[in-house]
Amino acid sequence: MTDRGIIVEKGNLYRGQFSDLLGLFDGVSLEDRSVLRFFNKPITGMCQSKANHDVAVILSNVDNLSKWDSRPASQLQKAGLAFLNITHDKGINHAQADALIKGFREEFETNEYIESDVISESCNAALYENNNLLINDWNSFEEIYEEVNEPDTRDEHSIKKVTLSIFQKSISRLKSEGNNLQDLKTDIDAVIAKIIEIEPKILK
Questions:
Q1: If DSSP codes are grouped into helix, strand and coil, which group holds residue 72?
Q2: What gap in Å lies between CA 127 and CA 116, rounded to an integer?
Q3: Parent domain of 83
Q4: pLDDT value at position 12?
Q5: Which of 16, 27, 66, 87 is the most buried (most CB within 10 A)?
């Protein structure tokens, strides 16, 4: 806060108030941006705190929440379902895709697998280990994708919005060069450098 010229005495703000204050200086998150665009709300010049408030108001309306949940699954969600080898209906909506991925995450992100009377313990262990690796890699993939598309990150590297297809090509290339998704989470610069290498026109 002090680097932004704001001095707050200890104990004068609750955690939520502190976050709102910080949000006055940050751009709109990808998630909030998606909601506001879906409901045709202006975003230009909006800060994170204002966006958080407006999104909360919009989704507090039951009809709006229903519309938001029933929208088609996003390209990122479809990529996640394919990545995790989850079968689904062709016309899957956002809420359904979210539930499938969440269910997979809850089942295989833990440190234990559930033994079955039908499948041997060794098969269960192998299945768990494979799917645990998949969900951890997908979590990293999603986190990196969101990070490279954060307004502050794009401004810092002078790049335009990174499409999912370009991002997938970049990650695939990095993996073929011996990098893994867990390490790339802490090396966003390397990811962006590869994106620029593959798609030079992404520079502003």
A1: strand
A2: 12
A3: 75-202
A4: 54
A5: 27
Residue 195 pLDDT: 98
Whether residues 53 and 117 fall in one domain: no
Tell me the C-alpha distance between 65 and 69, whole Å. 6
Tokens describing residue 45: 């010049």
* Alpha carbon distances (Å) from 125 to 111, 131, 182: 11, 10, 22
Query: Is pLDDT larger for residue 94 or for residue 17?
Result: 94
pTM of the model: 0.75
Let me know whether 56 and 148 are in one domain: no
43-93: pLDDT as tens digits? 888 888 889 889 999 999 999 999 999 999 999 999 999 999 999 998 999
In the chain the first and final C-alpha atoms are separated, in Å, by 29
- Reported as a pLDDT band with limits 50, 70 and 90, residue 142 is very high
- State the Cα–Cα distance between residues 86 and 107, nearest whole angstrom: 13
H or E stretch covering 138:
helix 121-148
- Regarding whether 30 and 6 lie in a shared domain, the answer is yes
Among 51, 69, 87, which residue terminates a domain? 69
CB neighbour class for 85 (10 Å; exposed up to 12, middle 13-18, buried from 19): exposed
Give dist(CA 189, CA 74) in Å, integer. 26
- With vertex at residue 140, the alpha carbon angle to CA 139 and CA 145, rounded to the nearest 5 degrees, is 100
Do 120 and 187 have their domain in common?
yes
CA nearest neighbour of 94 among 67, 80, 73 = 73
Q: Is the pLDDT of residue 41 over 50?
A: yes
